[in-house]
């Protein structure tokens, strides 16, 4: 019972710990922006890959049982410390890794705004601005790839894997009208899709997730340049049809993850048209070449693809995840994803608009497009072209420096990804690529990886897709490689040197 004589003690607002007070919030934003600025400003001076350790991370997390609340800035400091010390610094100018670039400043700003406004991109009517902005961008990129603006459709998604999965679903639904309702069991044969041995492995998962099984994905042999071979593919399609199987999709790659190989898209478009199968081009990272007039020709034929995967979070440096799947079939995505519910808002039912939840694998969806929109609005196509052009030139410079330093480049691509090995054969004391990569990474001087081209031996792999990398960084990478090679030779038993 309250005593009327006593002034009532103010009940603390239960939301306070979530909303914080005005001064706490102001201090928090200031602290966060300071940390962001410090990270982006100073990461170039840190080792690219600090020693990473499960024990170190678990040791810090273990004592945290969430029984005693932390102060906001203390919690931020805890997270920042973990991020600084326990991650490969992909925004580092000497990270020559897997297309994880430095994020654009406008992209970081956009993701902050998106978190705060928290628009829901499930129903169009909940945020006409966000939905129409994404549609505008999809058209802008669709037309860059050569689609007619009037027919471009698509959706933003988490990344290339989801985009590829969506494309497989569109192709399946288009080829087999019974698929949507009755699934693959309704079909008269086993559906088959084709991709080269160099294609991205998300197609394996897509085949599994679509209920086709991974054996539905037929690996097409590549030619001497590791490109999907259209003649071999044509023969495979013929054989599969003869055996009663149902070819429905060719997945070409516009810049393989591994080696930047671009499949012969125009001949594949012809084959797909002749055979009546869907052509998808996975241009997750290489698609950015469409922004450079001098490289656009490498993707010739992409405008004839039925669908395209493109990731803005790779070569366009937008923070993860910012994938897109585009199609020139205005209703294909709707056919694959259509759904109606009693509870979703119907406010937009009379308008000529699309509700994203019926147009995507996702339901509640974050506003992905803003980070690309703000980045492109500020850089313009020209700003992006200038950055890409410099990276292509740095890739070329890397090839030249490697040749001078006694390394042999083993891939051919106009894109800035370089596969290479010691000029000296292994049996004559040539360095083991995996040991070299490990030594370079351990030194903290740079980050690069190894891979294999088809069934070949391991080779070193470096790509230049960070807009902050310059000539000095490329030079430093080659120097670090040289040091690692020397160190490895010195450690060999005398007879093997
Ligand atoms: C990176 C990549 C993918 C996968 O994209 P995520 O954004 O990681 O899901 C698919 N295809 C290619 C060619 C890629 O390079």
Protein traits:
single chain; 497 residues; seven-stranded mixed β-sheet; 11 strands; binds pyridoxal-5'-phosphate
Structural account:
By secondary structure, this protein is of the alpha/beta class. 42% of the residues lie in helices and 11% in strands. The protein has helices at residues 16-19, 22-42, 54-61, 72-85, 105-117, 128-144, 160-175, 179-182, 202-209, 230-242, 265-275, 293-296, 332-337, 369-404, 433-443, 471-491; strands spanning 153-157, 191-196, 217-220, 246-253, 278-282, 307-311, 323-327, 407-409, 417-422, 449-452, 458-463. It starts with 15 loop residues before the first helix and ends in a 6-residue tail after the last helix. Bound molecules: pyridoxal-5'-phosphate (PLP). Pyridoxal-5'-phosphate binds next to helix 7.
